Amino acid sequence: MIGRTEVDVRGAHAGEYPLGHTTLPTKDIGRLLLRCADRPGLVAAVSTFLAAAGANIVSLDQHSTRQSGGTFMQRTIFHLPGLSAARDTMERDFADQVATPFGMDFRLSEAAKPKRVAVMASKEDHCLLDLLWRNRRGELDMSVAMVIANHPDLADDVRPFGVPFLYVPAHKDIRDEAERRQLDLLRGNVDLVVLARYMQILTPGFIDQVGCPLINIHHSFLPAFIGAAPYRRAKERGVKLVGATAHYVTENLDEGPIIEQDVVRVDHRHSVDDLVRLGADVERAVLSRAVLWHCEDRVIRYGNQTICF
Fold first, then answer.
1. What are the chain's domains?
2. Which residues are catalytic?
3. In this predicted model, what pLDDT tens digit does every residue of 146-169 receive, in sequence order?
4. Which of 4-8, 33-37, 94-98 shows the lowest mean pLDDT across its residues?
5. Buried b / exposed e across 92-126, counting CB within 10 Å, b at 16+?
6. Can you tell me the distance from the alpha carbon of 107 to that of 91, in angstroms, rounded to the nearest whole number?
């Protein structure tokens, strides 16, 4: 796969991939994300620093939560010849010259270094296989390091993708042991964990120790129809929309910052099986977009919200 990155900003509709965007090679392309209290001069300070470092700004997106006195967030894509060699020094200099004086939280990454991702699954295959398929086609800018499952059922489906499949039995009676084994596999080895219909609750200790963000996919607009048999319950309520929500995982079950959501219309003619099928389609699309945006450094967390550029 030839690494490429985006030039233009996303399309106007949050539920779409970037519209009309072009691409260029990822070599020497940097991504700078920052968040701080809003004040005059922020854009100028960042732009001046990048220009002095010899970088050319390719695109810049910014948002402030208020006209004054709010929180400022910015995503900048820049080109700098020899970025890999200069990155560590550049990061230190930016921290000293810009981030510290302005009280910024920031992250600097290289587009040419895809994030290492682990996918956790159970028995349902639709989200897991969709991510592996999109990644193989070059639609997701990531490197899948492993699949961890608490059932062995999907091993044969994963094998053709050349990704290690690791079976770690997990249920409530052996949760502590299972999480210790999972943490041994994940800690320090991946940049992101994706829960692709992983049907186990993760403890606060696991979330704290794993050392990277986790993204979960949830049927419906949260918090509607949580728990068992959601589509049967949706049918019983006569719903007119079936949806899915992708969110970051926090200690509060299914209440983490939402990255992406989408819906499809349904009516009285749809059976429970129809709702399950349509729901799976939405789950696949929503999860893949959330993972894509995270891996392209498009997401900045703001409290229990996200800003997705």
1. 4-110 (3.30.70.260), 115-308 (3.40.50.170)
2. 254
3. 999 999 999 999 999 999 999 999
4. 4-8
5. eebeeebbeebebebebbbbbebbebbbbbbebbb
6. 9
Q: Is 4 helix (H, G, I), strand (E, B) or coil?
A: strand
Q: Looking at the DSSP assignment, which residues form a beta bridge with residue 215?
A: 194, 248
CA atoms within 13 Å, Cβ hemisphere of 6? 25
For residue 242, count CB atoms less than 10 angstroms from its CB and return exposed for 0-12, middle for 13-18, buried for 19 or more. Answer: buried
Tokens at 251, concatenated: 């200690």
Residue 209: its pLDDT value, please? 97
User: What one-character-per-residue DSSP string does 46-113 give?
Assistant: HHHHHHHTT-EEEEEEEEESSSSSSEEEEEEEEE-TTHHHHHHHHHHHHIIIIIHHHT-EEEEEETTS
Whether the bond into 223 is cis, omega within 30 of 0 = yes
More confident residue, 24 or 259: 259
Q: Residue 283: which of 246, 234, 238, 229 has the closest Cα?
A: 246
Residue with tokens 């052996």: 174
pTM score = 0.88
Give the dihedral of Cα atoms 24, 29, 35, 41; nearest 10 deg.
-90
Residues 23, 21: Cα–Cα separation, whole Å = 7
Q: How far is CA 65 from the centre of its chain?
A: 22
Rounded CA-CA distance 62/278 in Å is 35
User: Is the pLDDT confidence value at 16 over 70?
Assistant: no
Gap between the terminal Cα atoms of the chain: 25
Contacts of 198 (CB under 8 A, 6+ apart): 120, 121, 122, 150, 216
| Side chain identity at residue 158, one-letter code | V
Mean pLDDT of the chain: 90
Residues 82, 88, 94, 96: what is their CA dihedral angle, to the nearest 10 degrees?
-140
User: 216 near 254, Cβ under 8 Å?
Assistant: yes
Q: Measured between alpha carbons, how far is 152 from 218 in angstroms, rounded to an integer?
A: 22
Q: Which of 289, 306, 3 is nearest to 141 (CA)?
A: 3
